[in-house]
Design a protein that fits this description.
GO terms for molecular function: 5'-nucleotidase activity; protein tyrosine kinase activity. This is 5'-nucleotidase. The chain has 216 residues and is α/β, with parallel strands linked by helices. The protein contains 9 helices and 8 strands. Strands 5-4-1-6-7-8 form a 6-stranded parallel beta sheet, with helices on both faces. Strands 2-3 form a two-stranded antiparallel sheet.
Amino acid sequence: MKFNPIFFDLDGTITDSAQGIIRAVQYALESFNISASKESLIPFIGPPLRDSFAQFFPGDPEKIEQVVAKYREYYGEQGLFEARLYDGVADLLRQLAENGHILALATSKPESFAVRIIEHFDLTHYFTCIAGAQLKGTRTDKPAVLRYACETLGITPSEDCLMVGDRKYDVLGAHEVGMPCAAVLYGYGSEEELKKAGADQICRDVKALRKLLTGE
């Protein structure tokens, strides 16, 4: 096995979750009488939520917490289910698990939401570990999530591990903890963004990712 364990991002890597996230952001901003187009909110997919909302409320942590709470009000009830699996991803996870790979989810999304999404799509049995952020605002960046996931698995990050993600945060986070990152172009990050971040591999689609991970 070339890479083991393999850490997967969620949004933009396993699920196309833009609709639910963007609707939740719009719902939250509208409670503060702020309107924003869908296109302008694409950057919310990937980084920690509080960091993204800070651009609307710079230097106002109290309002940031308020808008995050409004976001979760929508997302926790409806938005997290407004997503779809990317074609071929479930089969790839099944194949990797059957081939003996240890799979972990590593997302900046709150862990409780990530667990519900993975359960919703019936993928729980493929993952040894589901690691995410804490609702109270700790362990939100990708390096912290990856370190937590590695601790849970009882391993030390190394070149034998692999992070799979779609944004620069996945690449930079993986490199910070000492593992390579394969970036996918079917998610929300551009090829320019991912190359600039230093992605070790770039996969244009799930088929290319399968070839990298399984050799098939």
